[in-house]
Amino acid sequence: MLAQPAGTPVEAARAARGGPVLRVEGATLQYKTHRHLVTATYRVGFDVFAADRFILLGPSGCGKSTLLKAIAGFVKPVEGSISLHDRVVDRPGPDRMMVFQEFDQLLPWKTVRANVAFPMVASRKYGRREALERADHYIGLVNLGKFADTYPHQLSGGMKQRVAIARAMAMEPDILLMDEPFASLDALTRRKMQDELLSLWHQVRCTIVFVTHSIEEAILLGNRILVLSPHPGRVRALLETRRGADGLVPSEDFRALREEIQQMLFGENIVQEGAGI
Ligand SMILES: Nc1ncnc2c1ncn2[C@@H]1O[C@H](COP(=O)(O)OP(=O)(O)OP(=O)(O)O)[C@@H](O)[C@H]1O
Fold first, then answer.
1. Does residue 268 carry a pLDDT above 90?
2. Does 7 fall in a domain?
3. 117: CA distance to ligand 1 center in Å?
4. Whole-angstrom Cα distance, residue 56 to residue 40?
5. Residue 124 within any structural domain of the chain
6. 52-104, pLDDT tens digit by residue?
7. Cys-Cys crosslink for 92: which of 73, 109, 143, 252, Cβ 3.0 to 4.6 Å?
């Protein structure tokens, strides 16, 4: 079997090692405008464990970004709850760092080193000297050592995303929230960044929640994939990827899992339109 539903022995073993880092329980998330009430997700629940690369996957508008914003503490559930290490999330905090899709998330007037050090100093998690040392370490991990003294406008899109990732990881947050960080990159750079993220994760073993609407990206990066239904997002399935000794999903398994998820998300359309996969 390629994908394992929640509640498997793997899950049980993980739970036995300790409780979840993040628990989302029956979370309904809404936006109220003066004219409309938009339900982004409906009673969504899942657990994220230490060192998970947990993927939120679903079609556009199913509430993936809203879920991430709620975990970050920017949106409060109208029903259900979100807790980090058993503490209810009710505001943003340095224990949750976010990386966005946009290239303009860096401070343009600061160098790469100063950008990476900034949250460590601003949050008072580290003194200035230690923050700069840590910044250099993480800049090295994302292979930008030679660019520590340059400014964001001197970097390519992929390099800016690497800086944003280094900045978030350097804070050693309980959880790293990534909202389609590679979606604005060209296909080749995106593929390279996915490999780099995996290799970074093997060095750092941080806990990641990663939003994408790309099935391939989800399988490539995630060890667990939460598939959400179209708007409003509900949990359709929680799948686990099985990896070989090289850390990759074998190509046969990859294809089969991709089909399984495609059926889950678009099965009815495929039958109606007679379209191939
Ligand atoms: N600030 C907002 N005010 C009102 N409605 C919003 C707001 N932000 C998002 N929505 C709505 O909430 C729903 C979920 O949006 P969200 O951005 O979370 O989806 P998504 O799955 O991340 O989509 P995409 O993949 O296109 O980014 C959509 O119907 C969207 O229009």
1. no
2. yes
3. 31
4. 14
5. no
6. 999 999 999 999 999 999 999 999 999 999 999 999 999 999 999 999 999 89
7. 73
CA 167 to chain centre: 15
**pLDDT value at 24 more than 50:** yes
Task: Say how many Å lie between the CA of residue 17 and the centre of ligand 1.
Answer: 35
CATH of the domain at 237: 3.40.50.300
As for the ipTM of the complex, it is 0.97
Amino acid at 213: H
Domain of residue 228, residue span: 1-95+213-277
Q: Return the residue matching tokens 């508008």.
A: 61
For 92, other C-beta atoms within 10 Å of its C-beta total: 13
61 C-alpha to ligand 1 centroid (Å): 5
Indicate whether residue 213 lines ligand 1 (CB < 6 A).
yes
Domain membership flag for residue 133: no
State whether the beta carbon of 36 lies less than 6 angstroms from ligand 1: no
Q: Is 69 in the pocket of ligand 1 (CB under 6 A)?
A: no
Distance 210 CA to ligand 1 centre (A): 16
pLDDT, tens only, 108-134 = 999 999 999 999 999 999 999 999 999
Domain count, the chain: 1
Query: Using an 8 Å Cβ cutoff, are 70 and 77 in contact?
Result: yes
Q: Measured in angstroms, how far is the CA atom of residue 90 from the centroid of ligand 1?
A: 20
Q: Ligand 1 pocket check: which of 28, 29, 31 to mutate, most ligand atoms within 8 Å of Cβ? A: 31
* Residue 55 phi, psi dihedral angles, 5° rounding: -105, 135
pTM, two decimals, is 0.90
Q: Which atom of ligand 1 lies closest to the CA of 66?
A: 18
